[in-house]
Write a structure and sequence with these properties.
The protein has 259 residues and is mainly alpha-helical. Among the domains are: 11-77; 147-208, no CATH class. The chain contains eleven helices and two strands, in the order αααααααααααββ. It has helices at residues 2-20, 24-35, 42-58, 62-73, 80-91, 98-111, 116-128, 132-145, 150-162, 166-179, 184-208, and strands at 234-236, 248-250. Strands 1-2 form a two-stranded antiparallel ribbon. It is elongated, with a radius of gyration of 35 Å. The chain starts with a helix and ends in a 9-residue tail after the last strand.
Length: 259
């Protein structure tokens, strides 16, 4: 029995190693073989289901991810990470309903309120539901508590820009410069703000322009340049150092050799 349990744990450990190396397909096969076995510890089985849920989440197999994570949630309902993963498996669907994932994001945030990853997940889902005020409040609080977290800063700035609060967005970026000196992402965020400001300004100007009236464009009159006449007994020079009008060099007419 102990030898069989040792084999199960070795398979689970090897699956963890494959997952950490981003070899998700190999990890999924290893875990599928493990879950088909019988007679091993319940803790190992729950850990295998949890890891299989994470693997399926990375492989965009969301139905399978929810199925495996739900098994573990039935035994560990107070695990914040499990609720977050289950919410992610719902929200990453193409046509998912954000209302279904909101309770799990809320539970994850309730069990670990200082975890920035959970705050971003909850805030992003709140934005999908149209609750901009709730999302911005949570992101502000997290950005002030963890000013070095640029992922939260990016999401906060994006939300502020969408709401048209450009001054606050620029102020948040300036504050982050003192904490994260030399980080190239801060300049990228600033450029994104400037681009959005310019884009909205151009859109406003285009909307204010009355395109129903005809526009008359002024064109300069064409200047007719007379064609230079070729002088008899001359040659035309057209090398690179010539001016726009070629030089005409008069040469004496060659007299026939009578001698």
């Amino acid at each position: 029995m102990s030898m069989t349990l040792s084999i199960h744990r070795e398979l689970l450990q090897s699956a963890h190693h494959l997952f950490s190396c981003n070899q998700f397909v190999a990890a999924r096969k290893r875990l599928s073989a493990l879950l088909k076995m019988r007679g091993f510890d319940a803790v190992v089985r729950l850990d295998a289901h949890r890891l299989q849920g994470e693997v399926c989440l990375e492989l965009a197999q969301y139905d399978a991810a929810r199925r495996h994570l739900k098994v573990v949630l039935g035994h560990r309902p107070d695990d914040a990470e499990l609720h977050f993963l289950y919410a992610e498996a719902i929200s990453r669907e193409t046509k998912s309903d954000p209302k279904q994932s909101q309770p799990h994001y809320r539970k994850a945030l309730a069990y670990a309120p200082t975890q920035a990853k959970y705050v971003r997940g909850y805030a992003e889902n709140a934005l999908r539901l149209g609750n901009e005020r709730v999302a911005v409040t949570l992101l502000r609080r997290t950005a002030e508590r963890q000013p070095e977290d640029l992922d939260t800063l990016c999401m906060l700035v994006d939300a502020l820009v969408d709401l048209g609060r450009f001054r606050e967005a620029e102020s948040r970026v300036r504050q982050a410069e003192f904490v994260c000196r030399g980080n190239h992402r801060i300049e990228t965020i600033r450029q994104a703000i400037r681009y959005e400001i310019t884009r909205r300004k151009q859109r406003t100007e285009c909307a204010a322009t009355d395109v129903s009236e005809s526009l008359i464009l002024a064109f300069t009159s064409a200047t007719v340049v007379p064609k230079p006449q070729t002088v008899r007994g001359s040659i035309r020079r057209t090398d690179r150092i010539s001016k726009s009008l070629p030089h005409l060099h008069r040469l004496p007419l060659a007299s026939p050799d009578l001698g």
